[in-house]
Amino acid sequence: MTLEELRGGVERIRREWTESLPEACDLEALEQLRVQFLGRKGRVTALLGRMKELDLAQRAEAGRLLNKLKDEVTRELEERSLALEKAAVEERLTAEGYDLTLPGVWRPVGHLHPLTQVRLEIEDIFLRLGFDVATGPEVETDYYNFEALNIPADHPARDEWDSFYVGEGQLLRTHTSPVQIRVMKERRPPVRIICPGKCYRRDNPDATHAQVFHQVELLWVDEELTMANLKWIIGEFVGAFFGPDYEMRFAADYFPFTEPSAQVHIRPRGRAATGRHLGGWLEIMGAGMVDPLVLEEVGYDPERYTGFAFGLGVERMAMLRWGIDDIRLFLQNDPRFLYQF
Ligand code: PHE
In the prediction, which pLDDT does 276 show? Predict the structure, then answer.
């Protein structure tokens, strides 16, 4: 065989392949065609086998021609095979009467309420820092909600916590701080807890006030704790929850159960400041060093122990995170709102 004859052979096979391919109308016919051309005894294979009849100098060119033929045939075979498979599926679907353009049935899947998501995330952050989660009753006594926290009946600060009374000396707790008292009375220092839960106040509902809302209280009592430790913990929390794009500051405040007391503000810095709340400072919690009178009340020696506490609003956290501008949305149970989170 000469190189010219081989060239002629390649062209013939090429032509015949191109003619037979469209005639293979199903996968079975296509497979027969494959065996005929590419099989062990197929035509391409046969021609490849005859290459050794050529002069050494011509084999390179012959190899190139044959490989090109083989590649083309293989590729076209695959394309045809995919097309036939697709046609077969479509034919079956039509025969069985399926309409693939029919819209699907949407089955709503439940998920955690945005406030629950935020609460769990906050718990997670403090569990990692070595805090326990503690809880207390929502129906509290005047003693735990006020008296033990250094807020006697005639204290003007009571107005800050306008309350729902449910009986003589009993009320819906106005904050999670009473859990501090309950836990301290049960344990000895060191005490390191957070207390998430619902709170109730007789506020007029508006975009930033709800009569039912959630707080997470934090309390750490030990020897030698200072305001610096409080600041560090809050910084860790803000970093973990909001990320590095927020800065924080402390402003003086007053609570009967902490001294000194502070409110903590955060503000997005840099690029974040162009976003939701335009860079203004926002209060996220009340905080302070536990007042020695409170430590005495629960039987801790204020000469030996110090502690700090804060109470943060869970709704506030969620509103900041997602740019929600009305606190009332959380309790309306409107799926159009809830399904966004
Ligand atoms: N209990 C306070 C409130 O609800 C917040 C607070 C908690 C302040 C702990 C200081 C320390 O307003």
Answer: 53
